[in-house]
From TrEMBL:
SUPFAM superfamilies tied to this protein: MFS general substrate transporter
Keywords: Membrane, Transmembrane, Transmembrane helix
Protein name in UniProt: MFS transporter permease
GO terms for cellular component: membrane
PANTHER family with a match to the protein in the record: BYPASS OF STOP CODON PROTEIN 6, INNER MEMBRANE PROTEIN YBJJ
Origin species: Sorangium cellulosum
Subcellular location: Membrane
Length: 409
């Protein structure tokens, strides 16, 4: 049964916003902390490239399984409870890969890490949608910005720990302990889920369209966006280093520019959404990616590519938050189910994109492989009205109370 309460005051809404922000930051810190120590864990266990790849697949498998379970679980007990429990599970799972004594134990630890992270991902996004509904204006992108900020903090802490020769086990245990105290304290301020609309509870479509079709189209947008994110994470430095023969420092700058632009874009996205609307913003963002990266690949010099990667980060920064809002606010599908479906498709794009680009690079060139990102964001341009339609439907079903205005986070 969903948790329920009377409509909250502005103060409780502001506290809930702060609590959800903490959850997003904590999630980013946790996963980036693990990612920063992968080389040390690999060295400790003496893993070959293929073995490491198979072990890391455990994270993906665990996340996908959690995505499948998240919707029914949230529908049963509410996103507040699932967020609190999954956050504590993530803290408990974080040190396990560094403590694993063997390859098999590492795979099992990464399955648990991926599952707890995936469950928390869906639940905290459901919380974010509910807090936004009560807040009365767009704030969802800023939550995703907090995740990006957490990722930068976690990566910096991981680099510092590695530089000071702190063992992965000690480092991750310390991070997990700090995060556990933090999320446990914040969890009490999370908000109860709204009661589902009668049409949703009955499984009826309230907007005259097929929920599966809407979610499929929104999921396709998220998939295309995540292919671009995966491409930047895995191929931006390689392109600058191998194709344009830059220094290692310049090559590393490529992903840094992308990440910084995405961080700025996410913290700017809510104001832009309020001013221009979700559909228009998604279309403009996708055109920025297509134009910026497309022109950079044509010019094909380092400074142009750095600017192009910045355009990709700025443009893609708002796409997934707006897709999640559109799916979760639709009146004809439960938010938890919608978010779990969209998270699965989005994560699929992040997994599929990098190897797809690698295959195209082998057959053609890496330049041609990255052109796939341009083609896919043009698909987003064509599908942008779906985001606007989903948001409009959701707005009718869950109009926010005019006085529920929280503090700026």
């Amino acid at each position: 049964m969903h948790e329920s309460s009377e409509e909250p005051s502005a103060l409780s809404t502001a506290r809930a916003r702060r609590a959800v922000s903490i959850m997003f930051v904590a999630n980013g810190i946790a996963f980036a902390s693990w990612a920063a120590r992968v080389p040390a864990v690999r060295e400790r266990l003496g893993l070959r490239d293929g073995e490491l790849g198979m072990a890391l697949l455990g994270v993906a498998v665990g996340a996908i399984l959690a995505f499948r379970a998240a919707g029914p679980l949230i529908a049963c007990v509410g996103s507040r409870r699932v967020t609190r429990v999954s956050a504590m599970l993530l803290c408990a799972a974080l040190p396990l890969p560094a403590l694993a004594p063997s390859f098999a134990a590492l795979v099992a630890a990464l399955l648990l890490l991926g599952a707890s992270n995936g469950l928390m991902d869906v639940a905290m996004n459901a919380q974010a949608v509910e807090v936004e509904r009560r807040h009365g204006r767009p704030i969802l992108a800023s939550f995703h910005g907090m995740f990006s900020l957490g990722g930068l903090i976690g990566a910096a802490l991981g680099a510092l720990a590695a530089d000071r020769a702190v063992s992965p086990a000690v480092h991750l245990l310390a991070v997990a302990a700090f995060l556990a105290v933090t999320v446990l304290d914040a969890g009490g301020a999370l908000t109860a889920d709204a009661r589902p609309e009668p049409a949703v509870a009955a499984g009826a479509g309230a907007s005259g369209g097929s929920p599966s079709t809407r979610l499929l189209l929104l999921g396709l947008i998220a998939f295309c966006s995540s292919v671009g994110e995966g491409a930047m994470a895995n191929w931006s430095a390689v392109y600058l280093r191998d194709e344009l023969h830059t220094t290692a420092a310049v090559a590393a700058t490529g992903y840094a520019v992308f990440s910084l632009a995405m961080l700025v874009g996410r913290f700017s996205g809510d104001g832009l959404t309020q001013r221009f609307g979700a559909g228009r913003l998604v279309r403009a963002a996708a055109l920025l990616v297509a134009g910026g990266l497309g022109a950079a690949l044509v010019v094909n010099v380092p400074i142009a590519l750095l600017l192009g990667f910045g355009c990709v980060g700025a443009g893609l920064s708002v796409v997934v938050p707006l897709v999640f809002r559109a799916g979760a606010s639709a009146p004809d599908v439960a938010p938890g189910k919608a978010l779990s479906t969209l998270a699965t498709l989005s994560y699929g794009g992040f997994l599929v994109g990098p190897p797809l680009i690698g295959l195209l690079a082998d057959r053609f060139t890496l330049r041609g492989g990255l052109a796939v990102v341009v083609a896919l964001v043009l698909v987003i341009v064509a599908l942008a009205p779906v985001v606007a339609r989903g948001r409009a439907a959701g707005a009718r079903a869950s109009a926010a109370p005019p006085r529920a205005i929280g503090a700026h986070g």
